[in-house]
Design a protein that fits this description.
The complex is a heterotrimer of chains A (about 170), B (about 220) and C (about 230). Chain A is an all-alpha fold. Chain A contains 6 helices and no strands. Chain C folds into 2 domains: about 110 residues, Helix Hairpins, CATH 1.10.287; about 120 residues. The radius of gyration of chain C is 23 Å and the shape is globular. Classes of the chains: A mainly alpha (about 170), B mainly alpha (about 220), C mainly alpha (about 230).
């Protein structure tokens, strides 16, 4: 019996299916557990719309960054943004509040600057991605690089072969 | 941290630079030395010559990979070695998932350029498996994060066990099996991937071994 | 520290995320099961690649259900890894099909489309303008998003524009530039890491490096598509 199963697994196209079936089983079994989120998380985020409501009540323009406002001014060790990080580094919260002049102008005229798809260098996500969890970004980019190298190698191989065939 | 100490001995050295938190224990030191020696050995060796005999005809000869192809595969082998170093030393769960993904992609690259439809078919199916694997790997990490509120293995080691973390463990095991091409699903891996260019193919076996060793260690560390 | 700022970033996760988490996970599991059963039933290899995107979608659900800034940052590597693997696996599939056909000694008939675009004025004017707008907008955005937007603009132009040959060497030069951009990005990142005082310089290095990289890569895919039809 086991031998028969392994023999059928010798065909490469059976492997992804068997694999998908195994994951499906694990996921279905896991439905028995009741999933609960632990409220003590890192990098907490306010509830949706709270920051916009606060911005509408406040006169302070620094609240017009909803939902990405974490306070603080850049390059100021006295007034850092609030970041509850996993790993201790000496310069937490330095780049959370950076805005380009264009972004500052937008922030001054709108309550909902942070909700637009217009992104900018700096801000909380860049702080996490480039600073406190930088290795993630390096690895992510390296995986893209490797996959691109594989794809371009395969393509170059193919076009060169076709060129040789035409020359014959 | 106590579990790390129980499992693999005292920590010899560690880097603490934001999320770059690899650590070395006597156990992982042995793995690191194996990987380094193996990678250097594979980098310096030249591709094999495979004997070709056609039956009922007078055709006997050798075939090998082209120089350009050997260079590409050597590059992928070195990258795979670097990724394996990350896998065995990293102290962060999400970085572990990303390193294992990198191992999967480089493994795919090692035999992607072979001009043989049998090998290409196996490579394609393996590619499908490593695509599916993003779900168990990153999903498992995210469930751990949601339940414990941390990704650092040093912190995870002191948190008491939790039934939900078991689900996350099961998902991580399946993810590692897929990316590292491990036994139950890739029981006949050698049959599947009969490509030439022997020394570089061996990297895939080394990566299976290392990913397996490390995932077992991580499962004991979690909780 | 400003007391108002302290109230704006909560100490614990807000109740709304806690309420939504179990629902989100159950939905993700249902989506994943649907995707996997489709994969098990599917026979066509190309369709398999498409179907696998459904479980990957479920992965995004599970990660984003955590609802913190960290989860938002973890989504990005997930998307990029899925994209990269898709890129490599698709090329291998195409190469496999071509090798199979050659072994059968057949001509590549399926790849010879008898394709003639419709002659419409809007196709000539709208495409360059869309391309230009998205490239400029991508340059303003910088960073990864910017690169993706600019690259999409280049792609639109290359896919729909006039077909003309692009030399083989051009491709290799472009790969070289892409590698240099990757180095710039890594150096910018390291500067940010070691000397945070130079944060502005390093952020812009990272932003500029990654925009060149991503845009070039997406653009090169377009060039590849053209070269294939052109051969």
């Amino acid at each position: 019996m086991i031998g028969r199963i392994f023999n059928s697994l010798a065909k490469p196209d059976k492997v992804p299916k068997a694999f998908a079936f195994a994951i499906m089983l694990v996921l279905l079994v896991s439905l028995v557990y009741s999933y609960q989120l632990n409220p003590e998380q890192l990098y907490t985020k306010p509830a949706p719309q709270v920051q916009i409501e606060m911005a509408q009540e406040n006169v302070d323009v620094s609240y017009n960054l909803a939902p990405y406002n974490r306070g603080g001014t850049p390059l100021d060790p006295e007034d850092r943004g609030i970041v509850k990080s996993q790993y201790e580094t000496g310069n937490l919260g330095w780049i959370t509040a950076y805005l380009t002049p264009f972004s500052q102008w937008l922030r001054n005229i709108s309550y909902r600057f942070g909700t637009t798809i217009l992104s900018h260098p700096g801000g909380i996500l860049d702080e996490i991605l480039y600073y406190t969890r930088g290795l993630d970004t390096i690895l992510e980019s390296t995986i893209l690089f490797v996959a691109f190298t594989i794809a371009s190698w395969v393509i170059l191989n193919r076009t060169e072969k076709e060129r040789k065939d035409r020359e014959k | 941290m106590s579990d790390i100490l129980n499992l693999s001995g005292s920590i010899i050295g560690r880097i603490l630079l934001a999320d770059i938190v690899p650590y070395l224990t006597p156990f992982s030191l042995a793995l690191v030395i194996t990987i380094l020696v193996f990678t250097v050995f594979l980098t310096l060796s030249t591709p094999e010559f495979r004997a070709m005999i056609q039956f009922k005809k007078d055709v006997v000869g050798t075939s090998t990979v082209e120089k350009k192809e050997a260079r590409f595969r050597r590059f992928m082998t070195i990258l795979c070695g670097v990724a394996l170093l990350g896998v065995v030393t990293t102290g962060d769960l999400f970085n572990f998932a990303l390193f294992v993904s990198l191992v999967g992609v480089t493994n795919l690259g090692i035999f992607a350029g072979v001009k043989d439809s049998h090998v290409l078919n196996a490579a394609f199916q393996y590619g499908l498996v490593i695509m599916i694997c993003s779900l168990p790997l990153f999903g498992g990490v995210a469930i751990t994060l949601a339940r414990t509120g941390t990704l650092s293995m040093g912190v995870l080691a002191v948190i008491p066990a939790d039934p939900l973390v078991n689900i996350s463990r099961a998902l991580l095991i399946i993810g590692a099996i897929g990316e590292g091409a491990l036994a139950p699903f890739f029981a006949t891996k050698v049959e599947m991937i009969r490509a030439k260019g022997a020394p570089y193919i061996n990297m895939m076996h080394l990566s299976s071994l290392m990913v397996f060793t490390r995932i077992i260690e991580i499962i004991f560390i979690m909780g | 520290m400003d007391p108002v700022t302290e109230t704006i970033v909560p100490e614990l996760v807000p109740q709304i995320f806690l309420n939504f988490y179990p629902i989100a996970i159950v939905v993700a599991i249902i989506v994943a099961v649907i995707g996997f059963s489709a994969l098990i039933l599917e026979k066509n290899d190309f369709q398999k690649i498409l179907v696998i995107q459904i479980p990957i979608l479920a992965m995004y659900f599970i990660v984003s259900a955590v609802g913190t800034d960290l989860a938002e940052a973890l989504i990005l590597p997930g998307i990029v890894v899925a994209l990269a693997e898709l890129l490599a696996v698709t090329e291998i599939l195409i190469f496999r099909e071509i090798t199979k056909k050659e072994q059968k000694k057949e001509a590549l008939e399926e790849f010879d489309f008898d394709f003639k675009p419709i002659n419409m004025e809007v196709l000539k004017t709208a495409i360059p303008i869309t391309c230009l707008v998205s490239v400029i907008y991508g340059a303003i955005l910088t960073g990864f998003t910017g690169g993706a937007v600019a690259g999409a603009g280049i792609l639109i132009y290359l896919f729909t524009g006039k077909i003309s040959g692009i030399p083989h060497s051009f491709w290799e030069e472009m790969t070289g530039i892409s590698g240099v951009a990757w180095c710039i990005w890594i150096i910018g990142f390291l500067l940010l890491f070691i000397t945070p005082q130079l944060w502005l310089l390093s952020l812009f290095m990272a932003g500029a490096g990654i925009i060149v990289k991503v845009a070039l890569k997406l653009g090169l895919l377009g060039i590849l598509g053209r070269e294939e039809y052109n051969v």
